[in-house]
Amino acid sequence: MSNDAPTTEPERTRAPNIRDVARVAGVSYQTVSRVLNDSPSIRPETLARVRAAIDELGYRPNQAARALVTSRSRTIGVLASQTVHYGPATSIQAIEMAAREAGYRLSITNISSGDYASIKSGLDYLMSQSVEALVVIAPQVRVFEAINDLQVAVPYVTLESTGQNTQHSLWVDQVTGARLATRHLIDLGHEEIMHISGPQDWIEAEARMQGFLRELDDAELRTRAPILGDWTASFGYYAGLELLRYRDFTAVFCGNDQMALGFMHACREAGLDVPGDISVVGFDDIPEAAHFAPPLTTVRQNFAEIGRRSIELLLGELQGERDLSHEPVRPELVVRRSTGPRSGR
Amino acid sequence: MSNDAPTTEPERTRAPNIRDVARVAGVSYQTVSRVLNDSPSIRPETLARVRAAIDELGYRPNQAARALVTSRSRTIGVLASQTVHYGPATSIQAIEMAAREAGYRLSITNISSGDYASIKSGLDYLMSQSVEALVVIAPQVRVFEAINDLQVAVPYVTLESTGQNTQHSLWVDQVTGARLATRHLIDLGHEEIMHISGPQDWIEAEARMQGFLRELDDAELRTRAPILGDWTASFGYYAGLELLRYRDFTAVFCGNDQMALGFMHACREAGLDVPGDISVVGFDDIPEAAHFAPPLTTVRQNFAEIGRRSIELLLGELQGERDLSHEPVRPELVVRRSTGPRSGR
DNA sequence: AACGTGCGTGTGAACGTACACATGCATCCC
DNA sequence: GGGATGCATGTGTACGTTCACACGCACGTT
């Protein structure tokens, strides 16, 4: 009763810690810590002993303890929307790889709807993860409000398209991309050109629309109100059915490839030939675009590059770099078969 | 010199902790902890005071400290591949939402190539995050090896298609899905049917192929070696160009919608009509499939459901539930315009 | 009146790591 | 040969939280 034999079986199946490693290696735990953090002043022999002990025990540093004491979470937050689409998905994948390479992990949050409450709750969640930085791939207009309201104090990057707010944004020159697409249609002789845009609270959509309108303006062609879509093929289809009832245009510039696909579907149903009767241009160059019927002329964006650069920018800022200016990411026109000269009709 | 005035400005811009909250609320830190953990025995008045203090200070619990002391990371790992595709992306999104709802966060790792080293390193990374559970959306054959080699001790779920290994897998009845698709072609009178499958180390691809072969077998039709693809539209296109040189078949069942798209592209180039000359069936029902030319007959999978169920299963296992059997997720045939009766030729 | 019982709250550990500092020892220079 | 310098390693402490336990008090029971 007086002895509970406290020394027997003191270990459960607890994960080994830094002190266990030290004991096995015959050094102090601090030396082990030094090995883990690549301290320069370690004797090669000691280093080897510690390494051996780590392998023997299958030791893994406890990230929680490390985060606690350094007060660095080594986490980058991603506020995303529509991640099932090719563009965001590709960027996120590149972000994930770049972050992992730099020793950061990712915390991704999808906001289902684009309303303010949903954005705020997503942002709130990321903050509760104490992310060190933030990448926004979402409708940004409302995100900016939320970032202010929640007093987000970490560096963040959004994809911004006009090169104005270079402080927090990765400059993707979508205006030029849209101008390229529009110019291409104008060069083919089209004078009545429609635009089916993305949702207006996406800066990407807004910039593409601006590029479209400016290019038409420069060519002194008639501009008309773009249709506000939602990025989906279905929207492109139904918008097409509607628009083709009047058919007072000979070309369409779609805000992304999916909507272009839907639109071309509507053309087929209306008995119209693409590009014989109507030319169609998309945006993004998703891998499927080359296999649409007909293969789609579109504007290629290097989404992976965008993802990598985002992380580059954030990491720079985390390391206290001041000058965060950068070259814009430039899209590129890919001409395929969905565009042709304006029909003589 | 003797006084460094140690009491002045003791606080930097440190985040408030549980003790700061306690001080403001006039209670002990333990009481604050109880509020945070929804302890039942708290006087309503005290609760309100603590809540007010939390709001006033903008306090957020430190997850690292919490993880350290509870030795629970509240993280679920996702080992993924090809996340830019619709299916995985949709499942992951559902997983993310279900996990977040349950108070878990996600750690997603993409493996770029499917080789063993890459898988192992991805898995290793997830283990270093001390994930509590694991979802695998990747070529699984090699993943199983890696899981054994690394002695993964956490519950994990893979998408498995045959209902054999119900211990660790979510049963998605893709065999039946493939049989549905094949049956549909047979019912239309086709007797020479090709199959372009996914990569063989994906269990999904394997199961779809099995379903295809078995259904042909039951109908006593000739089976031939499927083409082993890589899920991409481009592969479907080039495979199509090759296959159509002989054209000793009247229907094709593709392992996913993208390959079907590419195949139909090849048909157009070869001057063949779908479904007039050749019927095509896909798999997955991506949102774009309804707008292909022609709209694609395919097998719908509820990817979101799969994602939710995965988490449900894992959470159950984490809470010590023993009986993890479940109903299989059943795919469903969606007949559109890419299939038709065998031509009389 | 003495006793257990429950509720609401407080006190002392412990989790595993990194940082600041201290120590022992060899080396160097004048 | 003695002090300064550098290297390799060890000791205390803090990070913010939860858990096990202890405490005081009001209540009902014996």
Structure overview:
Two copies of one chain form a homodimer. The first copy, chain A, is of the alpha/beta class and 345 residues long. Helices cover 43% and strands 13% of the residues of chain A. Chain A is built from twelve helices and eleven strands. Chain A has helices at residues 18-25, 29-36, 44-57, 63-70, 86-101, 116-128, 140-149, 174-187, 203-218, 233-243, 257-269, 303-318, and strands at 75-80, 105-110, 133-137, 156-160, 169-171, 193-197, 227-228, 251-254, 279-281, 298-300, 332-334. In chain A, strands 2-1-3-4-5 form a five-stranded parallel sheet, sandwiched between helices. Chain A has a four-stranded parallel sheet with strand order 7-6-8-9, sandwiched between helices. A two-stranded antiparallel sheet of chain A has the order 10-11. In chain A, helix 1 packs across helix 3, helix 5 (86-101) packs parallel to helix 12 and helix 8 (174-187) runs parallel beside helix 9. The longest helix of chain A has 16 residues, at 86-101. Chain A is elongated, with a radius of gyration of 27 Å. Residues 1-12 of chain A have low confidence and may be disordered. At the A-B interface, helix 4, helix 5, strand 2, helix 6 and helix 10 of A face helix 4, helix 5, strand 2, helix 6 and helix 10 of B. The first copy, chain A, binds a DNA duplex (30 and 30 nucleotides) through residues 17-19, 27-31, 33-34, 36-37, 41-43, 46, 61-62, 64-71.
